[in-house]
Design a protein that fits this description.
The chain is of the alpha/beta class and 250 residues long. The protein contains eight helices and eleven strands. The protein has helices at residues 36-46, 59-67, 82-89, 110-115, 190-196, 203-208, 212-217, 237-249; strands spanning 10-16, 30-31, 34-35, 50-56, 71-74, 97-100, 128-134, 148-151, 157-161, 180-189, 222-226. The strands form two sheets. Strands 1, 4, 5, 6, 7, 8, 9, 10 and 11 form a nine-stranded mixed beta sheet that branches. A two-stranded antiparallel sheet has the order 2-3. Strand 2 and strand 3 form a beta hairpin. Helix 3 (82-89) crosses helix 5. The radius of gyration is 18 Å and the shape is globular. The model has no long low-confidence stretch (mean pLDDT 91).
Length: 250
Amino acid sequence: MSKLAPDLTYAIGIPARFDSTRFPGKPLANLAGKPMIVHVIERALQTRLGRVIVATDHQGIADAAIKAGAEVAMTNPDHESGTARLAQAFADIDVDIVINVQGDEPLIDPQAICDVIKPFAHQAELQMATLAHPIRQVADFDDPNVVKVVCNAAGHAMYFSRSPLPYPRNSEALQDSDKLQHVGLYAYRRDFLLQYSDLTPCKAEQVEQLEQLRVLHHGYPIAVTIGDYHCLGVDTPEDMQRAEALLVKA
């Protein structure tokens, strides 16, 4: 679906835990006639980038994933994040680039999964990449549930925040194209993914509750590809209803 570096190999990891605080069991919740995790797997498989591996601590999720055509890695239930769960899953897998597709993104665009890895084709030292799109709703700029990002001239993230970013001290100078919403889709070199959990957490990460700030704190660039991406993370049963309505329209 996109031109990739021919000397790199890719795999998609989908972290999926059963015990979500706001929506227990959501990977197996019925969405348009099938478990939500199956929608994510089907879209990941459409990319044909490589292996699709679901990292989970729940046998029911594992069974649904295998039935949908994915591989499964059973992981420790105590992981603090999906990134840590993927690090365990890929500890013994020989691959260059791991793409982290969240298990609660049933509407993820397969092209977005392909786009997130494009910077690795021409940035040999790059360890991590992600996506963003221009903010579409005015209210989203002030919404703390919408993560914003500012990039430098090289297309690397300068900072991520739940606050308005950049802050419109001079509103006339701030264009709509400057307001970027982060898309929680990541790609890492496998060796860096395994190293990530050993990086010391930083204050900004803890205050903002954004784990990607740990990467910037330790001096590693994160490449940001900007496009017209549409994603809907499912955090609550209400989000599931919105996702189903969009699937029916498609």
